[in-house]
Write a structure and sequence with these properties.
Blueprint (H helix, E strand, L loop, with lengths): L14 E3 L9 E8 L6 E7 L6 E5 L5 E2 L8 E4 L6 E7 L2 E7 L19 E3 L8 H10 L3 H15 L4 H16 L6 H7 L4 H11 L4 H19 L5 H7 L5 H12 L3 H5 L9
Antiparallel strand pairs: 1-2, 2-8, 3-7, 4-6, 4-8, 5-7, 6-9
Amino acid sequence: MPDNKNNPLPHLGFKRFAPSAKLASYIQCYWFIKSGPQQKINSSEYLHPDGGMSITFNYSDSLKFDDGHNVGDTIFDGANTVSRALHLNGQVDAVGIRFLPAGARAFLAMPLKEFKGELLSLSDTPLNGYDDLYHKLADVMSYSDKVSLIEDWINQVIAPEQSALDIVNASLSLLNHHQGAVAISAIAEKLTINPRRLERLFNDQVGLTPKEYARNIRIKQARYYLKQQPNLSLADVAYYLGFFDQAHFSKQFKQVVGISPKIYAGKSKIEPKS
């Protein structure tokens, strides 16, 4: 069954499906966007960093990112520390796999830090069998059949390193619980692990440092406050999220999102994405 609460792209026929219980530790969701037969799309959507990575299969007009960058129809988007713009122009038909933070490491035989900030063709990754999956997805019509094909492929390529993943998932839970406003040394102490080892595991399993991931969480929560609680001042938001002061908050926000929090609050087209 689709899970389409808080649909971020209703004008694109956006549909989101939860993974099976077996893959719920790795996959955030599978998503589909498809414009109508006569519908021409001309818009820019903003993809905000949350520590996860994505695979996208494109079946229509080219998807272009940021300054018009086009990497083909099988796309791997690494963990980011800044927001990325997706430009849609023409017909839209795409299928996506969104990994949880640290989730993609079980499918890639190399540290995820190698993919930080990268936007690549899947041919430039160690993944196998994606080309066959791409064509199979085009041959079936129902979303449930497409999800089944994706999960069959994932189950063939998965090879988790459970001990490292357990440590990273525990640190992710603590960072999320504190909304990123916690010292990395405190996380390491809680997990009885050396802070340097924790950073190495994070780079390997998530593709970001713990500090970069923590900043993503704080900025994501800031975007929520700015959109959903407009009566809060910027100073209040900075205080709630543990920034030194409003100036520090504004600087960090602009580094990630690309615009100031004041401008962001007034831009209705930039919607928070989970």
